[in-house]
Amino acid sequence: MTTFRLREEPGRLTRRQFLRAAGACALGIAGAGLLAGCSESGSQSGSSGGSKLATIQSRGTLKCGVKKDIPGYGYLDPATGTYQGMEIDLCYQVAAKVFGCSYDDAKANDLVAFTDVTPKTRGPLIDNDQLDLVCATYTITDERKKSWDFTNPYRSDYIGMLVKKGRFSSLEDLDGAYIGVSQGSSTMTNIQKMLQDQGADITPEYLQFPDYSTLKIALDSYNIDVFSVDRSILSGYKDDTNELLLPDIKFGQQDYGIATKKGCDFSQTCEEVVQECQARGWLDEEVSNWGLL
Amino acid sequence: MDLFDPVRWQATFASMDTFWEGFGFTLQVVVAALILALVLGTVLGIFSTTHIKVLRGISRVYVEFYQNTPLPVQVFFMYAAGPLVLQSLTNAPTPVRIAPFVLGSVGVGLYHAAYVSEVIRQGIEAVPHGQMEAALSQGFSRAQAYRYVILPQTFRIILPPLCNQALNLVKNTSVLALIAGGDLMYNADNFVSTSGYLQGYIMCCFLYFIICLPLALLVQHLEKNSNKTPRRHRRKVAVAAGREA
User: Kind and range of the H or E element at A74?
Assistant: First the structure.
């Protein structure tokens, strides 16, 4: 091997040299790109902090990320192909503010472009500017506040316990019952805490399921007695055969806020909209209009 | 690299209790399902080699049904429809829940009985007719012919595929995780989705491996043994049997 390399012509690259050079090139390019990316995003959050609102205004539509499968909040009606729900209406309120028109005009003129988001996509879609805001049962947490701006909560959600009609009437009835919860959620600890707070000395069994539809099937086939997740999600599974157990016991509070890009002026606009809607009772009206649990 | 993060491994080992709990449950399900599969499979396999058309038909229909539908669908159907069907059958006031243990062992057992039945049938058919005729002509009774001539040969033929079935059965019990069955996979899944540590799955694989490896070794041993059946001893027995007749 060494003798072979010694015999190489001085001008020609050996394979190893070539690889080394290529690697260095790749590293250099990646590094340069990274730097450029940093400085770009840096300048954007710095100087274009004032232009985010202007960007939306000049574009003419507000790009919103919403849920498409949570009736009452964000739901894509398959029959009409339109989004419906409280969060959809709230997006129109923001659009009305941004474009300086009335709420009804914003709705009539289609000033909002909706995109459906999932828990996995909603953060990144704000980060890469594909969406101006996300209004999709997005729970405000301290952790998330580090990455995005959140408005004050426009709605507080609680954990609900969906049961078959007429089977249970008090917490004591749940002794030894099977409670189905979603895998990896904090529902179980919240229920245990609630039972303690309520002074209910009962020990239900907890079963964890991979998804909501399986939970619904388990409830319908009486394999579990209680289907327990956030009420916003439960609203999609509510039907004539089931009911919310003790809806007045509110526990496991989650505050939903509108998320926007960290540090842009548009965040302030959203905050104002939420506060105005709150002040004139519009949010409460929406809650009762959409029959939220 | 998160996979080698000692903190995460520590957390995994700290919750070994739940893993062992699932391990024990899976083991119970495996034993029950294996017994069911072997017994039912043998019966169905013999059915499919008899000359009675009805029995052959039953075996055929059963095998085709179970071989051509996915196991998760079968188990899920039993899970969702079972309680209500049992209620109407037994006239119980409330739907009758099926325990995950029953669901797992019956669901997986019935499924693998179909495969075992095919293995048995092929094993029996693989021994040429002439063997039976020869045994009978040598004065063996039919039962003796089966005991000393046909079955030893069948056994050797079916052992490897039967082993595959047993190993698959072990792994297929993980279908219980779909319906919160409390088995090894379910507990590992819960651990991973709560903590976010993929180490749980590695531990899960390892525990399944612990069940499967001895099984594979046992069958290997049996296989070797059945090949080693002493010729002289067998001949002695055969001669004695011939003299009796």
Answer: strand A74-77
Q: Do B179 and A218 touch (CB under 8 A)?
A: yes
- Residue-range definition of the domain harbouring residue B231: 2-244
- Total count of residues recorded for chain A: 293
The pLDDT tens digits of the residues spanning B135-183 come to 999 989 888 888 888 888 888 888 888 888 889 999 999 998 888 888 8
User: Tokens 């790749």 correspond to what residue?
Assistant: A26
pTM here? 0.69
User: Is A223 close to B83, i.e. CB distance below 8 A?
Assistant: yes
Q: Is A242 helix (H, G, I), strand (E, B) or coil?
A: strand
DSSP A205: E
Q: What is the CATH number of the domain that holds B43?
A: 1.10.3720.10
Token representation of residue B171: 């792994």
Using CB atoms and an 8 Å cut-off, which of residues 21-50 of chain B contact chain A? none
A67 neighbors A75 (Cβ within 8 angstroms): yes
CB A64 within 8 A of CB A106: no
Site of tokens 């999932």 = A118
Q: Are B180 and A218 in contact (CB under 8 A)?
A: yes
Question: Running DSSP on this structure, what letter comes out for residue B95?
Answer: -
Residues of A with CB under 8 A from a CB of B: 180, 183-184, 207-210, 214, 217-218, 220-223
A140: which 2 tokens?
């405000």
Residue of A183, A214, A223 with shortest CB distance to B189: A183
Contact A222 B194 (CB under 8 A): no
CA distances from B125 to A253, B117, B130, B155, B157 (A): 67, 12, 12, 12, 10
**Residue owning tokens 């399986």:** A214
CA of A165 vs chain B CAs: smallest distance (Å): 13
CATH of A159-252, one of 3.40.190.10, 3.40.50.720, 3.40.50.300, 1.10.3810.10: 3.40.190.10
Q: Which two tokens stand for residue B228?
A: 């080693």
Q: Test A221 with B81 for CB contact under 8 angstroms.
A: yes
ipTM of the complex: 0.73
Mutation site, B186, B187, B201, interface A, largest A CB count within 10 A: B186
In the block, tokens 């013999």 appear at B46
Tens-digit pLDDT profile for residues A93-149: 999 989 998 888 888 888 999 998 887 788 888 888 899 999 988 888 888 888 889
User: Is the CB of B179 less than 8 angstroms away from the CB of A183?
Assistant: no
- Verify whether the Cβ–Cβ distance B189 to A221 is below 8 Å: no
* Topology at the third CATH level for domain A51-156+256-289: D-Maltodextrin-Binding Protein; domain 2 (3.40.190)
Asked if B33 and B102 touch (Cβ cutoff 8 Å), the reply is no
